[in-house]
Amino acid sequence: MAVAPEVRIGTRRSPLALAQTIEVKDLLIQSNINFSKPGAIKIKKIKTSGDVHLDRPLAEIGGKGLFTKELDLALLGNQIDIAVHSVKDVETNLPDGVLLAAFLKREDPRDAFISLKTQTLINLPLGSIVGSSSPRRQAQLLHRRPDLKIELLRGNIQTRLKKLANGDVDATILASAGLKRLGLAAKATEILSVDDMLPAVGQGAIGVSCRTCDVRVQEWLAKINHRETEICIKAERALLATLGGSCRTPIGGFAQVSGNQLRLRGMVASIDGIELYEAELIGDIEKAEAIGKYVGEELRLQASEALF
C-alpha cells in the first residue's frame, strides 16, 4: 500500500493568497491521488511584512520582497515544503537555496478599471483621484491622463474596494486575475487593453517555489507546471532582470505564445508619465530568456539612466 506523501504549503493570509493556494492544492491532488488522503497536504498561513505595513509605498519599506521574505525563510528553515506566490510579487533575484519550480496556467493578465462614477477610464472626470500603489499603473495613467491625481491605496482587494465605496478615491485599478479568483470580476467597470496598460511582469500568474535541493518536491511540482506560462514568465523576468529597476521604477512586461513564436512587449517610464518608452521582439519560444534580455537592453538604450 502506497504511503501518502506529505507536503506543507506556505502562503500569505490574504483571501487572494488563500484562493491561489487552494488552486495549487487542487492541482496537486489531481496529479497524485495520494495527495487526496487526509493529512497529505497541510496549509500554513504566514504573515508577511508587506501585509502589515500598509501606510507607505512598498519602495519606502523594502520593496516587493516584503511579500515573500517570510515565506522564503520558512522554506529554508524547513517549516514548509513549497510556497505559493503571485509571480508579480516575486523579486527578480531569489535567495540562495530557493527555486521557482512551477507556474500555474495564467489567468487574465490585464488590469481592471473600477469606478462608481463612470464606466471607463477615458470618461473619468478631469482631476479625479485614482487610488493605486503601483508606479507602473501610475506612470501609464498619467501618460494618458496627466490631469488625474494619484493617491496611495494599499491593502488587499477587499480593503481597496471598501475605500472606493467609501468615496476615499474616485477610481482604482486592480489586477483582473485577482478579481476573478475571488469571484469579484463583476466589480470591474472596464478591462483595460494591454495596449493601453501594459501589465506587470508575471501579472495573472501563480508561482510555486521550493528548496533547490528538494528533488522530490520538484518532481511533484513538475506535474502541475504549465509550460506556456513558464515560457512567458521566463521572458518577462529576464526583461526585468536586464532593466534592473527597483520598486520605484515603472516597468511593464507581457509575453504571449503563438505556436513556436514568443512575442514580448516591454515598457519603462518616469513616475510622472512624461517619459514612456516601449520595445518588443518576436522570436523562438526556446529563446525566451534571450528575448527578454534583448527587449530589456533596447529599453535601456532608449531611456535615461535616471529612470533606473
List keywords for this structure.
alpha/beta, D-Maltodextrin-Binding Protein, domain 2, Double Stranded RNA Binding Domain, 5-stranded mixed β-sheet, 32% helix
Brief synopsis:
The chain is built from ten helices and 13 strands. By secondary structure, the chain is of the alpha/beta class. It has three domains: 126 residues, D-Maltodextrin-Binding Protein, domain 2, CATH 3.40.190.10; 81 residues, D-Maltodextrin-Binding Protein, domain 2 (3-Layer(aba) Sandwich), CATH 3.40.190.10; 82 residues, 2-Layer Sandwich (Double Stranded RNA Binding Domain).
Give the count of helical stretches. 10
Determine the fraction of residues in helical runs and give it as a percent range: 25-40%
**Which CATH architecture of the largest domain is right?**
3-Layer(aba) Sandwich
Distance between the termini: 57 Å
Q: Output the strand order for the largest sheet.
A: 2-1-3-10-4
Count the beta strands: 13
Question: What share of the residues does DSSP label as strand, in percent?
Answer: 15-25%
What are the secondary-structure elements, in order, as H or E?
EHEHHHEEEEHEHEHEEHHEEEH
Shape: globular
- Low-pLDDT segments: none
Rg (CA only):
19 Å
What is the CATH topology descriptor of the largest domain? D-Maltodextrin-Binding Protein, domain 2
**CATH structural class of the largest domain:** Alpha Beta
CATH homologous superfamily classification of the largest domain: Periplasmic binding protein-like II
State the secondary-structure class.
alpha/beta
Instruction: Give the integer mean of the pLDDT values.
Output: 92
Whole-number tally of structural domains: 3
Largest sheet: 5 strands, mixed
